[in-house]
Design brief:
single chain
């Protein structure tokens, strides 16, 4: 099993990945173009007794001797492809490179790479050191062995990976999230509800239910004793009618300003670090209760 992992890009996601890897006993080699991240890496080293984590100023050195690379750089195609080319000659013959990209499809990222067969998407959900989901999806040139190895690797570090068999922009969970976001924005844009009321509709109804069961299990229960078959035959058509009524809101400057103002009122003046701490504590409690 992989013992040394490279984390390329040490922003919020990259550092959270590093924390997750350290927790499961792996040695981590980090790189980021901003050398100031060394102080945050030092904090991680001090937090975990015996943690092996180092910063490298040269990306080629960061991937030296590793069997798995987790890239979490900026969400821009040209930046990521440039980074992959920079490490090409430094990678081991069997090293797997996984990207944390939220929206870019793997076939677009792996074009022209000599190691394209060993390239895969390993998309976490923020914060990745707490939430267990990782979406694993290969591109046109990715070998099935790479997908399997990546899946097994994420399982070994305590994640709950899923294999996606079709490439789609945004993968799976983000597309579900985007659909909810579209409806949330439309509710505010149409005057149906305020930002605070949309939040309450999720946190006081949908959210607690989703923490226990997904949409399929939820609607299976909605079908009563007849389960999903009864739901699809009895209630499903009413839900399908809502699909036809869905609107794509236009994000005007006025609407953006309204959303920003109402969100600021909702979240208050708490410091960013306090918001993160509150979120993480709640997520840990929810996961522990399952």
């Amino acid at each position: 099993m992989t013992k040394i992992i490279a984390v390329l890009g040490c922003g919020l996601i990259g550092l959270n990945w590093a924390e997750a890897f350290l927790k499961t006993g792996f040695r981590v080699q980090c790189w980021d173009p901003n050398e100031n991240v060394q102080s945050q890496i030092d904090v991680l080293r001090d937090r975990f007794s015996g943690a092996q984590i180092d910063y490298f100023s040269r990306v080629e050195d960061a991937v030296n001797g590793v069997e798995f690379v987790q890239e979490s750089g900026p969400e821009r195609l040209e930046v990521k492809r440039g980074l992959y080319q920079d490490i090409e000659n430094a990678l081991g013959a069997e090293t797997i490179v996984a990207s944390s990209t939220s929206t870019i499809m793997p076939s677009d990222l792996q074009k022209g790479l000599s190691y394209a067969a060993r390239f895969v998407i390993g998309h976490p959900f923020n914060p990745p050191h707490i939430l267990p989901l990782v979406e694993v999806v290969g591109g046109n040139l990715t070998s099935e062995a790479t997908v399997t190895k990546a899946y097994d690797f994420y399982t070994a570090v305590g994640k709950q990976p899923i294999k996606l068999h079709v490439e789609r922009m945004g993968h799976l969970a983000n597309r579900i999230q985007a659909a909810v976001w579209r409806e949330s924005i439309d509710a505010v844009a149409s005057g149906q509800a305020s930002v605070a009321d949309v939040e309450l509709a999720i946190t006081a109804a949908l959210g607690p239910r989703w923490a226990l069961m997904g949409q399929f299990e939820t609607f299976d229960l909605a079908g009563g004793q007849g389960g999903m078959a009864n739901f699809l035959g009895d209630i499903g058509s009413a839900i399908e009618a809502l699909w036809d009524d869905a609107q794509r809101p236009v994000m005007t400057d006025e609407l953006k300003a309204k959303i920003v103002a109402e969100t600021q009122k909702l979240v208050g003046e708490r410091e960013f670090a306090d918001k993160i701490k509150r979120r993480d504590e709640f997520l840990k409690a929810v996961l522990a209760a399952k």
